[in-house]
Write a structure and sequence with these properties.
Length: about 600
């Protein structure tokens, strides 16, 4: 990696000064709190902080990406700061103090590829330069290796510190937590597997309450469950604008001729024409990578991932002047390589594996070879080498491997799912959905729906939607029945984009997921959220009535009826009825028996 000059690079003096300042602050506060039991002079916080910061900064300041494969690059050579927003404000994240000023407990949500993990790396580095806090970046997917009963966020953070050279007894680490000297950056909450999510959630909330003086920033894809995180403020990440997209392209270490041509076309027409792609850092990078192949830009995100995989597999190395073709040590051609990779993604996705040891990666490859490549042979280690070095779908960091971006795992897991028979799809995915307990954290279902919409309706949505519809009709087509069957009650939550809103708390998680996927299948326009003075007045009445009863934790519909406020609440959750009516009306028009049937030439001609 070229050690280019960059104004964002942190000098040794800055790290030393921060360690000294933080150590003095902690030692003073610890000495006051525990003056009768410990001698603050015996606790060398300065040395512990300094060793940790030097080692962590060296590791976190560089990253491997899909563009660079196994070559780590300095973060600011390819990262463009995104802004975040709530209803009232847009927050500039270039200075972490702007975010810290928002409060001690912050959630930042964003879609796949928007750059949440890189933003937290930026916060880590910027905290060293711009604040007196000690930053700790905690990758939550690491907790997937634990049993729920063994998960302790407090201990996990301590382990992260130790990995980067923090030499201080755990007792003194806990003392330091009480002083509020840390910024804890929890990355990838949505990557915590379902069986561990409840424990991790409770651990984070308990930790934030116990050590409330510290700052916490958590990143995730959007999740309904954040409604219950009453003391956290949620902000959503904002896609790149045109100037940011151009700035990002200008930074990238790529073939100058190709990059300049792409930059010019992005400026003149491509950004406006394909803004939904060009405003996403991952997809924008893919646009650049496929640009030299003169491939037209597809309309769908799924086609985008397919195109990126093809380009990476066949690609000449655009960063080399000689432009040689990468050799595949496994010897597999494109279609065979893709078959194996699709199963690798399918198996790892449903096993909640986002990061691999070499052993677990090779085990998944061996299973894929057994399932989809019975007519030949290749070495699992060669295929792993190809995934990492030639096709750049995995990156190798330390002892572990991870996907260059999780979106590729989801896309190819869906690709393999399309190859299952109707019965296999129906039984396997229904069983999986029923086991998810409502925590749908991925785009997998949306991708599968886009790849095979009719099969998705036929195999995944139709039967459970008919079951729900039959229950609705058996209960007199009652709106009240539907509300109380599907949802447990309401909660008031401050959203990133619309301020304080009333949400329903999901009770029937399986049907709720199916219902939501049905809306996606039907391309439902989510423009039905109530607002205005009446809405705000009702929200105010609810808050006033239940303020002393911790209303924000949730109020059951039974309680609302008992307190004679249920009818008013229905006015602010009109969206439930609107969506219910829309879905059930559309369901009546769907005939799955026509899906895939051959039609007469004349009828098709008439339609055309």
């Amino acid at each position: 990696m070229a050690e280019e000059f960059n104004v964002n690079k942190i000098s040794a003096e800055v790290i030393t000064d921060l360690a000294k300042s933080a150590a003095g602050f902690v030692a003073k506060k610890v000495g006051k709190i525990y003056k009768d039991t410990i001698n603050k002079e015996d606790i060398d916080y300065r040395t512990a902080f300094e060793k940790y910061l030097f080692e962590a900064e060296r590791h976190i300041s560089v990253a491997k990406t899909i563009l660079y494969g196994q070559t780590p690059h300095y973060l600011y050579s390819f990262f463009e700061c995104m802004s975040i927003r709530n209803r009232e404000n847009i927050i500039d994240t270039s200075d972490v103090n702007n975010v810290l000023d928002l409060g001690n407990k912050i959630i930042i949500t964003g879609t796949g590829g928007i750059g949440k993990s890189m933003l937290l790396k930026h916060f880590f580095l910027n905290t060293i330069s711009m604040t007196n806090y000690i930053p700790i970046l905690v990758e939550l997917r690491g907790l997937n290796e634990y049993l729920p009963e063994n998960i302790s966020i407090e201990e996990y953070i301590y382990n992260v510190l130790q990995i980067f050279g923090f030499k201080l007894e755990e007792e003194y680490y806990k003392y330091s937590l009480e002083t509020g000297c840390y910024l804890i950056l929890f990355d990838g909450y949505d990557e915590v597997k379902n069986s561990n999510s409840s424990k991790v959630t409770q651990e984070i909330i308990d930790f934030s309450n116990k050590y409330s003086e510290n700052h916490i920033i958590l990143s995730s894809r959007p999740l309904d469950e954040f409604v219950g995180w009453s003391e956290f403020k949620e902000y959503s990440s904002i896609a790149l604008n045109k100037n940011q997209a151009l700035s990002l392209i200008s930074k990238l270490d790529y073939d100058a001729e190709i990059k300049n041509k792409f930059y010019k076309q992005l400026d003149e027409e491509l950004f406006e024409k394909y803004e939904s792609f060009a405003s996403n850092p991952l997809l924008l990078t893919i646009m650049l990578m496929t640009f030299e192949e003169r491939i037209s830009i597809p309309d769908s995100k799924t086609d985008f991932y397919e195109q990126a995989f093809s380009a990476l597999f066949h690609k000449h190395d655009a960063m080399k002047k000689g432009k040689y073709k990468r050799e595949k040590t496994s010897g597999l051609g494109y279609e065979d390589f893709k078959k194996v990779f699709s199963y690798f993604c399918f198996r790892s996705f449903f096993k909640n594996q986002y990061e691999f040891t070499e052993k677990s990666a090779l085990e998944n490859i061996a299973k894929a070879k057994e399932k989809v490549y019975s007519y030949g042979d290749f070495k699992e280690s060669d295929y792993l080498d190809d995934m990492t070095k030639a096709v750049c779908m995995l990156v190798h960091e330390g002892l572990n491997y991870r996907f260059s971006h999780r979106s590729f795992q989801e896309y190819f897991a869906a690709v393999y799912s399309t190859q299952l028979s109707d019965d296999e799809q129906r039984q396997f995915l229904s069983s999986w959905l029923k086991s998810m307990s409502g925590r749908m954290t991925t785009d997998f279902l949306d991708i599968l729906c886009e790849l095979q919409p009719d099969r998705f309706m036929k195999n995944i949505l139709y039967n459970p939607m008919c079951e729900l519809y039959d229950l609705y009709k058996a209960n007199g087509c009652s709106e009240d029945w539907f509300i109380e069957y599907m949802y447990a009650g309401i909660v008031i939550y401050s959203t990133a984009s619309r301020g304080e809103r009333v949400f329903v708390q999901v009770k029937q998680s399986y049907y709720h997921t199916i219902f939501t996927s049905m809306l996606h299948y039907l391309h439902y326009k989510y423009d039905d959220t109530e607002s205005g003075k009446e809405y705000d007045n009702i929200v105010g009445q609810i808050k006033e009535k239940y303020e002393d009863k911790r209303y924000i934790k949730g109020i059951s519909f039974a309680q609302l009826k008992k307190d004679n406020i249920y009818d008013k609440v229905k006015l602010v959750i009109k969206f439930v009825k609107q969506r219910m009516d829309y879905v059930f009306n559309k369901l009546d028009t769907i005939d799955i028996n026509t899906f895939g049937k051959k039609r007469k030439f004349e009828s098709m001609l008439d339609e055309l």
